[in-house]
């Protein structure tokens, strides 16, 4: 297996990798670095020291990180870094330039003009569609740009088959110039029932909750509009219905960058426990009973669902939230709810608590398909020179 020498260009903060989008980038390059040379040029707001550490036992950080770029909000200024990047490509004998997201696709094109090296774009979502759903002005202009840079790229990777099919249909990309890099996991098996019992007891004791309390869980970047809306919907749509039942429950929410107005609403809701940023998110996937994802906005794959499924945690999610999740055997671990059907969503949460069934987990095929090592081998390592 031939391993290409890669220059990754990341126009935003990914170190430290706390959020799902950051982990999607960092964990991919960590896994790729196990096979060969990886050079990362990142924006200067990254904390590069964090790149020397990994919270995954089987991941490595054998890659060089250069925080020399301007953030994508000042992207045009990276014309001033063009010479440095050209020198880096020649010095390190780079074969592929990888652009994470489409923002700097134009930079990949210029680097190809001056060095002759191919560039590809690795997209976590169709950005224009996301901007449109969030009501951002200028989404049509970005739609034109996003289509154009993907057409100029030598290859395009998308986070799901859904996004890939969209690009082929609407942008005219040839099938053989596209591929999929899903959000991955380092897990190879679910959390054991014994570990779950121990961690749940610890969490119940921490918050002085009764043993029969069902713990639902939601996490994410909390100033991100789709996640913020989901929490308001939890408060306004789900909790009133849940409270009409005899269910003993709490909804645990964790995440970063919460805004003051949202925190104020949460503090007035006794059914919610707000944990803020948690260092060990895997412990919460193990200690809670069910992950809920009533996200109704946004594009791309909800990375939190892959994390929850990989840990063995049952998931209840809107169809919108579960877009892009493979139809591989999930053993009924993922319950998809039609969008905005709040009654069915809350009823599923209540029924979940009443089933008292043994833990069902995803199949071994899931762990093979979504393991980072497999993803790396099936993506850039399979490209021709």
Highlighted features:
385 residues, alpha/beta, Rossmann fold, 2 domains, seven-stranded parallel β-sheet, six-stranded parallel β-sheet, 14 helices, 18% strand
Describe this structure in words.
- There is one protein chain.
- The protein is of the alpha/beta class and 385 residues long.
- It folds into two domains: 6-185 and 371-382, Glycogen Phosphorylase B (Rossmann fold, 3-Layer(aba) Sandwich); 193-361, Rossmann fold (3-Layer(aba) Sandwich), CATH 3.40.50.
- Helices cover 39% and strands 18% of the residues.
- The protein is built from 14 helices and 13 strands.
- The chain has helices spanning 20-32, 82-91, 105-115, 127-133, 139-152, 161-171, 193-206, 225-242, 260-267, 281-287, 303-311, 342-355, 364-370, 372-378; strands at residues 6-10, 38-43, 64-69, 96-100, 118-123, 155-158, 178-180, 214-221, 249-256, 272-276, 290-293, 315-318, 334-337.
- A seven-stranded parallel β-sheet has the order 3-2-1-4-5-6-7, with helices on both faces. Strands 10-9-8-11-12-13 form a six-stranded parallel β-sheet, with helices on both faces.
- Helix 7 (193-206) packs across helix 10.
- The longest helix is centred in the middle third of the chain and has 18 residues, at 225-242.
- It is elongated, with a radius of gyration of 21 Å.
- Residues 50-61 have low confidence and may be disordered.
Short description:
The protein is built from 14 helices and 13 strands.
